[in-house]
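Long-time lurker. I teach an intro course on protein structure, and each term I like to show students one example going from raw sequence to a predicted 3D structure in token notation. This year I'd like something fresh instead of my usual example. Would anyone be willing to generate the tokens for the chain below so I can use it in lecture? Attribution to the forum is fine with me.
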Amino acid sequence: MTATVETLPIKGAGLIALLTALGALGQFASSVYLPSMPAMEDALGASAASVQLTMTAYLAAFAVMQVVYGPLADRFGRRPVMLGGCALFVAGSLLCMAASAIEFVILGRIVQAMGACAGAVASRAVTRDLFEGPQLSRVMAAIAMAFAAMPALAPLIGGALQELSGWRSTFAAAALFGGVVLLFVASRLRETNRSSMHTLDFGSVWTGYKAVASSREFRSYALTVSAVMGTLFAFLTGSPAVAIGDLGLSPLEFGIYPALSIPAFLITGGIVRKVVERTGDAPLMRLGAWLSFTGTVAMLLLPVLGHWSALGILLCMCVFVAGMGFVFSLGHAGALRHFRERAGVAAALMGVMQLGSAAVFSGLVAAFAPFGSMAFPIAMVIGGVGAVAFSRGCR
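-- Reply from a regular --
Happy to contribute to a lecture. Here you go:
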């Protein structure tokens, strides 16, 4: 029997806030240190490529570990996975904060990711445990709004911390965030898993992933979200060098600009909650994919036409983020709705696809380095094309 919200010491808005915080740990850690990248190069005597590797290593570890956490969450429960993950996240954040060389930062980022992805998988599985139908879509939309706003808010926080206390303070902030979430999970959240999985072996894990991956509906929704996620991380990886290095923005100024795009996400996320019961998920997913694609094309036109500017980047990102609001608000619910007994596996597989895409597109930005400031817009357009193509299969 599925647990209900009433069985939990924390419920309603508080429950949604906690689940959002668990899912957002990874987003916060991936973005809060972006304004500090140039400072880390100087302080640690590292190359730009090695500092960018801290992002790629983080995303790769995040993607791979979700294959592990999904079955564990279904077999042993959501709560133990959350607790262990939060503890790992705090340890990795502290290792990054104390690092004396870029190699230790990379190691710390891997440990950070190993912890953060546990929260992402388990929080999505808990949501699937507790909600059904249109309510699931509405709750997922509310969580996704805050979750996807984090990459815009975190650089603002990181920029302020960089100017006040230096790059190490951004990792201290991540450790503090993880510690607070760990405390609330330990004291307020009970187990919600009521699945019948009693064994865990390679055969059962493979069968679970195969069953989920064989669903065309799952693939369409998950791949659309993954393409948009990859596009977002192409921007996050490549934009600091352009905004801070080429356009001369300070770390704090760079942090402000992504935050200014949040209203576009909030508007489309609000539209989803109001109309999804009448329209269904699929039309809004396709609309979001096309909006995101339009934003990426506009971003590429800026350097092509020789009009790089902070305002131009902001306007393009507002269009992209508006589309992302539709896709992120609906994609998880659309992908997970048919997998009550395998919610952890489905959430994990979707997470692997998303963060795997983010790692690939982060790497593409480095691969396109010969194109200079056009590197990340080219990668973004590729992601936008993928989102439009995959969204055609959403039903």
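Some talking points for your students: Residues 1-7 have pLDDT under 50 and may be disordered. Residues 124 and 324 are 18 Å apart (CA to CA).
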